[in-house]
Each structure stands twice: as C-alpha cells, then as structure tokens.
Amino acid sequence: xxxxxxxxxxxxxxxxxxxxxxxxxxxxxxxxxxxxxxxxxxxxxxxxxxxxxxxxxxxxxxxxxxxxxxxxxxxxxxxxxxxxxxxxxxxxxxxxxxxxxxxxxxxxxxxxxxxxxxxxxxxxxxxxxxxxxxxxxxxxxxxxxxxxxxxxxxxxxxxxxxxxxxxxx
Length: 169
Known about the structure:
Blueprint: E1 2-9, E2 24-25, E3 28-29, E4 51-52, E5 56-59, E6 63-69, E7 88-95, E8 99-107, E9 110-117, E10 125-129, E11 138-143, E12 148-157, E13 161-168
Antiparallel strand pairs: 1-4, 1-5, 1-7, 2-3, 6-13, 7-12, 8-11, 8-13, 9-10, 9-12
C-alpha cells in the first residue's frame, strides 16, 4: 500500500510543512527511520480553503506519524461524533494504492478523530470516533487508489500536543 500525506492546517496558515525527500515530517518520523521538522508554508487564510505542504508517502505495511499542538489552532470543523467547539488540525492523505489503512491519535486530553472524503474539510464524513473522556481514538478505512481524504484531530475538551499515527494494513 502506498499513501501520501499532505498537511492541512485548519484555521491558520504558516504551519510546519516538510520535505518528502527527507523521509520525515511534522517533527515526527516514518518507518524508514527518517525524521525532520521541515519548513514553514505560507498561504492566504482569507482566500485559501486550507494550507497544504509537500507530501510524505507511506508504502506497503510501513507506518508513520505526525503531530502538532492544538493550542495553536481554532475550531473550524467538527465530526458527527464530537469536536464542535474545540480546536482542530487536519492531515490530507492521497492514496497511491488501494487498501485498508488505520489512523489513531494519542494525546493527554480528550480528542476526537474523523475522516472526510476529498481534499477539503467540506467532504462527506467517512468515519468518526470519540472515546469519551480519553484519547486513543482509532479509524480503520478501506480506501481506493487516488482517493483523497482529510483526517482531522479535534478536541472534545482541553488541548495540547498530539500524535497522529497511520499505517497501511
């Protein structure tokens, strides 16, 4: 399976991006052992629907992670299972090979995790998970070749640093 990750900064622009050639991103790492903090990306928050960075690919059964701090963001979208008033942060994925993919979040606050179809935050919801009072939300999605999705980490209550982990199965 092969998946490309683009970062979608909801609410504000100029967030951390990354170079797909350094095998890392968002201060996280991928299964190839690379890591990196990347460089800032700029866009016009008034006219652009989102901020995107360069992609990070996920191949075969490899895995990766990325994260940020929700305290730096605002509430822009919400899932059907929660996150209506908390800050959120989205990751855009482009599926290069059809298959099953798992996404899960870890944080020290109550998070909500949901996936939207398409390359924007206005796509139809594919799945939503909110473990009331805890972190550890997880999504398992069957995705098609060239499908684009946005996976959103949202806050049910509180905010702080989080990590989104993803892998092809």
